[in-house]
Task: structure prediction
Amino acid sequence: MCLTIPAKVVEIKGREAIIQKESATKTIDISLVPDVKIGDWILFANQTAVQVISETDAKEIVDLLESYHPNAQPDKLSEKFKNIIENSKKRDLTKEEIIYLLQTKDAEKEALYSEADVVRRANLQDFICIHGIIEFSNYCKNDCAYCGLRCQNSEVKHYRMTPEEIVSTAVKAANVKGYKLLVLQSGEDPYYTAEMFADIIQKIKATAKVFIFISVGERGLDFYKKLKEAGASGTLFRFETANTKLFQKMHPNGKNFESRLEHLKFMKELGYFVATGSIIGLPEQTLEDLADDIMIMKKWANMISMGPFVPSKNTPLEKEKSGDPEMNFKMISVVRLLMPKIRIPVVTALETLADEGGRKKGLLAGANSLMLNLTPGKYRANYKIYDNKFFDKESIWEKYGLFKAEESYQMIEERMGEELNKVIK
Ligand code: SAM
Ligand code: SF4
Result:
C-alpha cells in the first residue's frame, strides 16, 4: 500500500475541489467523497480525492512526509560539488565522484540530501510505499560474524512458524491490512523445502492479491526456480559488501562472495525482481568499498536493500562500533541520484540507530518506502539479527496506507514491470 501527503480543501465547485498543498493549489475530483467540506483534509491520488481524514492525523502525516527545506547556502558549495551534481543528471558518476559525495559535510551534505529529495519527488511524486516483512524462522545454518541469528549463537530462542501460520499471517496482512508486497524472511533454514515453500506461496496467492518476495539465503538454482514457478515475484538478497576480502572475513566458514553473485545472477535470469545491497559500516570497510557497493547495486538491483551495521550481542562483532546513520543517508542520496525511480526502503536497522527521526530523514534523503514488521508478536522478540527497537507509530502508516485495493497492486505491478523491462533492454 502507499501513503501520500494530505491536502486541505480551500474551495468547492460542484464535483471538484481546490486543494492547497504546500504552497500550490490544485483542482481535484471529489466524486468519491461527496460530503467533503471546505477546511477538510483529504488524501488523494491521480487527481481524485480518496478519503477525508482528521486534521490531527493529516498534520501527523504532513510532519512525516513534508519536503525538505534546508537553509540553502549556495556560496558554501564548492565548484567540484556543483559539477558532480550536474554530472549526476546523466545518472552516471565515477567512483571518485561517488567517494566525494560520501565525504560531504555540513552545507554540501545538506545540499546532497536536498538534491536527492528533489529527484525522488520529480520521479516518484509523494508516494511512500509500505511493505511488510514476516520473519518466519530464526534457525540459520550459517555463521555470519555480524548476525545475531548465526548458528554459533547459543542464546537464540529458536522458533519456526508452521506453513499454516505463515499463510494465515500473510493473507491477513494482505486482505485485512491492505499490504500488497510482503517479504517472507528467515535464517538459512533447510527445514523448509522448495515444495513446502511452493505450497505456501500458492496458498497465499490463491487467497490474496499480493506480491511475495523471499529472503531465505542461498538455496540454489532449483529451489528459486520452483518458487518462481509457484508465484514468487522477488527476492531480498544482499551481497553484503563488495570488498571480497572483508566478505571472507565476515564469513569464515560459510557464504562466499562468488556464490552470492552467482545467486544474484540466476535470480535475475529467472525473472525475479531483485532487492539487493550491502551493510554500511562493517568494521574495516572503507569509502572505496561503499562506492563499489553502489556500483554493484547499479548493476544488479531492481530495488535496494541496504542498511547500517548494528552490533549484535553474542557475535564476534558485538563490541564493534555501529554504522554511521549519516553515511547511510548519504548512500541513500547517491543511489537516488543514480537510480531516480528505484525503490529504496528505510530499514529497521537505520531506525534503530537514528531513532524515529531516522525514518523521516531516510525518506527525505531520497528513500521512498518502509518495511513494517508483521511477524506475530510471540516470535518477534526472538528474531534478533541485532537489538532493534520497535515504534508505535506504525498504526498511522497502516491506517492511511492508501489504495488498499486493486489500484495499489496495479501500481506496484506497473512499476515492477517498467523496471524489469528496462533491465532486459
Ligand atoms: N538469511 C538470509 C540472508 O542472509 O540472506 C536472510 C535473512 S538475514 C537476517 C537479512 C540481512 O540481515 C542480511 O543480508 C544482512 O545484511 C542483515 N544483517 C544481519 N546482521 C546484521 C547486523 N548486525 N547489522 C545490520 N544488518 C545485519
Ligand atoms: Fe543466517 Fe542470514 Fe544471519 Fe547470515 S545474515 S547468519 S545467513 S540469518
